[in-house]
Amino acid sequence: MNLKRISFAIAFTLTICPLSGYTASPQAIAAAAVATPSTVSSGLPVHTALEIAAQWKKLMQPSLDDDQPYVVVPQASGTYSPGSLKTSRIQEGVNAVNFYRFLSGLPYDIVSSSVLNTQAQYGSVLLASEGNFSHKPPKPAEMPQAFYDKGLASTSSANIYASFGYDDPIIPRSIDAYMEDSDKGNLPVLGHRRWLLNPQLQNIGIGMAEGAEDWTYSALQVFDQSRKKKVDYNYVAYPAQGAFPTEVFAPSYAWSISLNMQKFKKPVDKNVTVYMKRLSDNKMWSLGLKNRKVTETGAYFNVENNGYGSGSALIFRPDGVKEYKAGDRYTVTVTGLQGIDGKSRIVSYNVNFVSAAK
Hints:
Layout: E1 5-8, H1 26-35, E2 39-40, H2 49-59, E3 70-72, E4 84-85, H3 87-103, E5 111-112, H4 114-130, H5 145-155, E6 158-164, H6 170-180, H7 191-196, E7 203-210, E8 215-221, E9 235-238, E10 242-245, E11 255-259, E12 273-278, E13 283-287, E14 300-304, E15 313-317, E16 329-338, E17 344-354
Parallel strand pairs: 2-17, 5-7, 10-17
Antiparallel strand pairs: 1-6, 3-4, 6-8, 7-8, 9-11, 11-15, 12-13, 12-16, 14-15, 16-17
Helix pairs in contact: 2-3, 3-6, 4-5
């Protein structure tokens, strides 16, 4: 099947700041490091290749059968009904969310809420009813106002997804698409990814409904911040420090660093530079304000300070990478950041690409 992905994250305030790259010298990175002497790690667990392979097998093997995914089939016209998904289908989505959070060193104990699942079903039916793929779709003429209000409450507070065809495990694939998030429309903010990697996330809701002409729609309620125990961290990197699977990362995907705003001051784009180095051939990149053009591929940089997930994020992508292969190792160094105390901070970590399926 040729899977068509369409997804958008809800925006509180949308500011677009795009990128493209040049090669930095080791001397430039060394000089930057001297200028900002305090190096900060993520403060999150770092996982091994064996641990990742075990979680891949446990969490990322959704059912490929074609059985009915619904307990009650949603009705997107006529007598509107939200329907309900089988628990097993919802759990496949929960598992995918937990896998990506595990990779990032975050708590991976996300659960679905029956209340949020029902909300997501209303949103999915609203999207499917006329195929208006938007966070605020207009009311279908025959849809009861009360039903529409519940659907709108969902879509306006959710990640949403549309897929053409139905021979693929759509819910897990929607989570993959939210984590990719690197098409031209989403690249400047990575809103879907940042909500899923919000450290305080605890409960989600998943819905799905079928529309006309083999289109299927899904809503993911993900704005929850109800985790009781506060996560102590400095930043959330994706790809994360240590082993990271090639199966979920491609050259067109953006790298990102979400800062803990209780540890860092709001970053200023003109001050921040991201240095990357591929250790196999010592290829180096320096990404900053000159790299602001939004493209499907190639070098990119943005400092995004709006309220997606946990707060400010650095978004970047090197150019000229044909493939991330098992055995590839990259070093990331970020300068121009300040701690909450006003002192300079360097973010620095290594990413070691591995295969999760081997």
